Fold these 2 entries.
Entry 1:
Amino acid sequence: MKPIKVGLLGIGTVGAGTFTVLARNAEEIRRRAGRPIEITMVADLDTARAKQITGGKVEVVDDANIIVNHPDIDIVVELIGGYGIARQLVMTAIANGKHVVTANKALLATHGTEIFRAAQEKRVMVAFEAAVAGGIPIIKALREGLTANRIQWIAGIINGTTNFILSEMRDKGLDFDVVLKEAQRLGYAEADPTFDIEGIDAAHKATLMSAIAFGIPVQFDKAYVEGITGLQAADIRYAEQLGYRIKLLGIARRAANGIELRVHPTLIPANRLIANVEGAMNAVLVHGDAVGATLYYGKGAGAEPTASAVIADLVDITRLATADPEHRVPYLAFQPDAMTDTPILPMDEITTSYYLRIRVADKLGVMADITRILADAAISIDAMLQKEPAAGETEADIIILTHKTQEKKAKQAIAAIEALEAVSGQVARIRLESLG
């Protein structure tokens, strides 16, 4: 049968992995797809490197527009990244009636609604398994495997860089800045790690998962995003003493009055499986009304794990390319005319529990003042640690775990506590999720 011809935009780490795995497993992939899948063109500014990787077996060009406009290309694989030229190339490929596979979560989280609408009009497919959690097939699980379920919530460790940093902080008792430098030295963190450590990368991925889980448009601009730069080794140590671990979680939850979409450091009970995901690994916990909780674990980045997801999308498109577009799996799981406008909730309306670390002067009445403020805000205490001052010091830490309360009330109470004369500096606040 005639091969499906693929044009590859960008042959960096993931592109090279895709080319290698597709060549290595060509026969196995043909047997699964029903016809051969061949990369016939590659676009990369570094043409010498691209020719070295491909061994002269494909046409290499330095202008990606040649591929998206080429009449013989059936599927365009976009691995350039970013919002600018990648968006233009994807939209041109779609306009030319080509299917698209992309690993670009930033592009889809920001411009996904526009891209999916254009693809629907041109009756082509846009596949993006590699955009979330690397080699873990979480998009397919949400879009197909759990289609019978009303998804209640998703909680994911979906950024390997931050998970590596938090694991090292816990294991070695080091502060954030020290571990970040080590992560950069080992190649786990970029020279500019902002997207990772500030939670932006995780928020892109959580945005895509929320759209698929709840049948809503992609709305990255409405996500609450908080990174790990403010975490201290003391907080990780205290969390351990209370039976918790701290992870950067992407959370999407169905609430009575809307959808929660948030990324932030989170205390998780240490006996939860997801709390024990260490290093650069990823994991996503999904709770459906019929199936209960299901956990998806694996490598969230890297050449061949991500290539695995890219090639899975190529196989899916190859199988379905000749199918009636009306009978293909929808881009975001729900039929386009069945999407809802359920609102994304402002963070002030979120309800969760909290970890509070309060630095106080060692004198009578401080604890009474703090508990009074919490009681006045209708915030009840679940657990508490009161540390003695270290030798020669006059201040100590009080650690409080609260029961669930509204974010708005927690912020007001924290402001009142910080205003107390005996309280030093800002209150450290980390949200807590039981994930039960």
Entry 2:
Amino acid sequence: MKQPAIFALSLLATAVLAACGGEAETEARSPWGGDATRVVTAEVELQPLVDEIQALGTAQANESVQIQSRVSSHVETIYFEEGQRVTAGDLLLELENNEIVAGLALAEASLSESRSLYERNLSLSSTQAISVSNLEELLAEVQVNEAQVQAAQARLGNTRIRAPFDGRIGLRRVSPGTFVNSSTVITTLDDISVIKLDFSVPETFLTAVSEGMAIRAHSIVYPDRVFEGTVMSINTRLDPVSRAVQVRALLPNDDEALKPGMFMTVDLQRDRGDVLVAPEQAIVPEGSSQFVFVVVDGVVERRPVVLGRRIPGFVVIAEGLVPGESIITEGTGKVRDGSQVESVNQSAATLPRPPNEG
């Protein structure tokens, strides 16, 4: 009677072990009950790659000057108002010039006398009543007096200060009666109808800038406005410390919204053409080598690749892939070369256009 019971228990144990073994074998094949491992893939494509940087610059007036006197004297009359727009040649200020006027009158009188004397003796030269050497001395005296008159006229002209170019007057720093000399700043004059924007560009972006190219600049003063201009010149030398080159652009400023000294940013772009880009998570490093898993007809192929530059979230594939191939982006740790896989969301996982590098 004991043998049948033992046999029954043996059969029961065999059945339980068989059931457990079958379940474990099923899980080993696939957690979804199939032979293929489910992964997420993406189709690599050629995509345009554009580098973008923001260069920092300072606005400057197209023309700028401090109005100063060439002579030392007192201010007699001021003809300008602060903030006034003036044109080239407008009289801005007149200095006291009584002494200079008197000196000019004296020089003119001496010139008139010497010229009259020379002309009288010149008429006698034909009769040889005066020697050639004496006549030459009289002519030299005339020339000296002419030079003295010109010098006095120049000194008189320097007492009348005029605008050297079209522009807008700054703050007045003198008053009538103020004694001024060559170091005294009377006011400032700026031509801001056009703004010069000087900014630095890194050495790596040197080929992205050229004379005549269009730029777009921004100011924190006008956050919703874009100022468009043109590169006028590029410095011939790079700064040996910052490894950057100085660039100057011209920005039209008809409404005079921009002022000299304002801080501005410039957006620069460099088109690198079409490149093959893959998500970073698709790259499998192994030592110094890099691999991706390519899916061809549901079969995994472990493919070595050569990487180019990195972009946040993406990497350029320099060698190893061709456009249109599908690579595994999620599930790389569950597959190996020759594995059977089932692709999930292949169409939805197509690479988006990579963001421009800032």
